[in-house]
Amino acid sequence: MKGLSNIKSKLLAEEIEERILQYIIQTPLEIGTKLPNEFELGERFGVGRSTIREAVKLLVSKGILEVRQGSGTYVISTTPPELDPLGLQGLGDKMSLALDLVNLRMILEPGIAEMAALNATEEDIKKLREICDITERKIRNDEDYIHDDIQFHTCVAECSKNKVVEQLIPMIDTAVLMFVNVTHKLLKEESIATHRAVVEAIADHDPVGARAAMMMHMTYNRTLIKKMKDES
After folding, report:
1. DSSP per residue over the chain, as a string?
2. Which one in 64, 105, 120, 196 has a CA-CA gap of 20 to 30 Å to 9?
3. What is the pTM of this model?
C-alpha cells in the first residue's frame, strides 16, 4: 500500500509540474520572475505544499526554475525541454544565442519557404492560412501567441516536403520561442504583415516571393535582436 501511495504522489507531482509550467508559459511569466510561494501555489492548484515542493524540484531539474535560498523560486527558462532538443537554454548569454539562432534562420528559412511555395498542397495552404489567422487574432487581442507562432514556422517547414527539413523543425521551434521570449513580443505588426506575405506567396506557388517574404520576416527579427544586444 505504501508503494501505491508513493506512485500516486509521484503522478500528482508530475501533473502539478505540467500545470505550473503551463501557468508560467500562458501568464506569461518572464525569465527572472519570482514564483508565488508554496502556499499560494498550493491554493491555486488545489494541492498541498509537499506536492508543490516536489513539482518545483522536477522543474528545477529541467532547468525551468531555480530556488534561491532565502529569496524564493525564480523562472530561469520558459522553454519546455521538448522544445530545446539541442540544450541551448543552458548557455548563459541569451541575447548572443538569440542572435546566433536568427543568423542561422536567415540562412535556412527563406530557402524552406521557397520549397514550400513549390510543394505545398491545397490542404497545406488551408492549414497555413488558419494558423496565420489564429496568430494574428491573438496578437491583436494581446493574447499569448507563442505556440501559434511556432506552429506557423513548423507548418511552413512541413509544406517544403523535404525530409531533411523535417529534422530541423525542433531547432526552428526553439529559435522562434527564444526570439519571442527575448524580445518580449515587440514585433507584433511586423509579424502579422510578414506572416501574411509568406502565406500569400506560398498560396500563389511563388517561390521567389516566398523567399523574399521570409527574408523580410527574418530581417525584422535580426535587426531588433542586434539593436537590443548592442544596447545591453
Report:
1. -HHHHHHHHHHHHHHHHHHHHHHHHHTTPPTTPBPPPHHHHHHHHT--HHHHHHHHHHHHHTTSEEEETTTEEEE-----GGG-TT-GGGSS-HHHHHHHHHHHHHHHHHHHHHHHHHH--HHHHHHHHHHHHHHHHHHHTT---HHHHHHHHHHHHHHTT-HHHHHHHHHHHHHHHHHHHHHTS--HHHHHHHHHHHHHHHHTT-HHHHHHHHHHHHHHHHHHHHHHHHH-
2. 64
3. 0.66
